[in-house]
Every structure is written in C-alpha cells, then in structure tokens.
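Problem 12. The chain below contains 333 residues. Write out its predicted structure in token notation.
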Amino acid sequence: MASERHAVIRGTGAYVPEKRVTNHDLEQLVDTSDEWIRSRVGIVERRMAEADKASSDLGAIAAERALADAGVDRDEVDLVLCSTVSPDMIFPSTACLISRALGIEHRVPAMDLAAACSGFSYGLHMANGLIRSGMHKTILLVAAEMLTRHVDWTDRATCVLFGDGAGAAVVQAGDPSEGGILHSAVGAESQYADPELLAIPAGGSRMPATAETVANRQHYIKMEGRKLFKVAMTLMPEVVKDVLAEADMTMDDIKLLVPHQMNMRIVANFSDRLDIEMERIYVNVDRYGNTSSASVIIALNEAIERGRVGPGDRVFLITFGAGWTWGANIIQL
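Solution.
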C-alpha cells in the first residue's frame, strides 16, 4: 500500500536589496527621529531596491536560492505560486514573470496570490492541499514585495514601516516520516475589510488613476495604526490557541514561533498575551521593516541559516494582513 503523501519543505531562500535606509536617513525626509521610530515600532533600518528593479527580480533571486537549497532542478517544478501586493504590473502576473526569468516556461502553471501580508501562509496552505491531493508534486512558492514604491514619503506614520524583500520555498511531495507541513489553517475576518483601516485606495477599478487621485496621494498605503493594533492583539492570540488545539499540540511542542514582522510593538504584545518568552519568537523587523507577505519566509529562512532551528524542529508560522486575512502553518523541518 502506498504511503500517504505529505508536503515537505525541501529548501528555502531569501533576498533583500543591499541598500539600507536607516532611521537617520528618514530624519532628512520627514519630521521624525531615530528615537521616535525605535520607541513606537522598533525598526532601525529597512532595505530598498534599486530603481531599475521590480518585485519579480527580487522573487527570481529568492527562488533560485530556494531551488539550490532544496537540490531541486527547475525542470522538476510543476507549479509556481507568487504572493505579492506589489506586483510588477497589473498583468501579466508576477509568478509568470518569475517563471520566465527562471526558464520555467513550458506548460507549467503560474499564478499570483493576493492575501496581503498573509499571502505566504495562504500559499503554503494551497501547496499542502495540492500536493496531498496528488495534483502537484513540486511547487515553487515565492513571496516578493517592494513596498517602498507604495509608501508616501511625506507621511511619517507609514513611510518608516516598510521595506523590500523576497523569500521562497520549494514544497515537494514526501513521506510522513520527513515531517513537512503538519497543520495549516487560513481565514479572513472580512468585517475588517475596510479601506479606511488599511488599503491603497486608488489604482483599481473602484478608483482608477486620474490626475486627481495622483494629486491627492491616493496611490500610497493608507492605514489606521491604532485600530490595526487592536484588531491584531484581539485576533492573533486566539488564532494561535485555536490552531494549536486543532493540531492537538501546545506551545511546548513548538521550537520557534515565526510571526509576520509588522512591528516590534505588536510582536512584544503578542509574546505577552500568549505568555511566550521573546527568545522563542523570531524577530528581524528591526533590520528589514515590514516586507508584507515576504516577511515570514525571510524570517524563517534566516532562522534556519542562523541555526535557530534545524532538522526535526517544529516551527509555527503566523501571519495577518489587510482584509483581515490570517494564516497559520505548523511545519517540521
């Protein structure tokens, strides 16, 4: 009898641009200070891509690194998924552009996911189902974001938060003994799908680009930080507890919690509400800022590279984003 198919993460990769934008750099642009930024969001610097680069360029590099880490040839890939809220353009999809850059061209499906900062978790959830069902065997999952192109550099409340970066994972069919994706859940609390809460208002079908929308700076990220904080602190601890119960686990079964890197204040409060030591939560938002859906895979890849987790360890990924989307994945390396 054939063994049950499991979705195993064979390899990961990440890429962040070389250019660092420090808090002192931002002091030259807006009325802010290093002390103000550190005290409110805990960010010291973030990365910014070169002017001639786009999200697919970052994603392709991260994808190549993930394939190399997995020891998987690009010819083995039978599906490419890309999570992004900052695509190169409305169409073609960023996934197709990454596939083209990698030479994955003939009849291999490629598509984008739009779940805001939860996108990578949604992608793992999809990959898990597609592999377990037997529909796909080797999935290249990428999260590529370039949010510095979408911030208002005159708005000190938002321009200090975001950075550019990409991460990727190769998810492949494997044996249950190899661990892999042990449990996965996604959802959306759509009562919070309020454009006044978090959105880029213009550029879509509701508010197409006009001279007026550009003049009114409606093509930039708009957010209500205090309201977002309250939603996150109410919802996310509940999700973690519920998902652990569904998986018949406790936090004692988890080596490391890797959350979406929104800001340090949220992560610290998250730690308090779940009664988890900060040492068991991986944080790099201080060095990269909020890279939206790329943040959790950049953090996971870095945690692996730095030896915080290794083969056999269980990791809990938890994400949340505009919509209000959320995702949770318990994986075993």
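Discussion. The chain has eleven helices and 13 strands. Students who got a different answer should revisit the alignment rule from Section 12.3.
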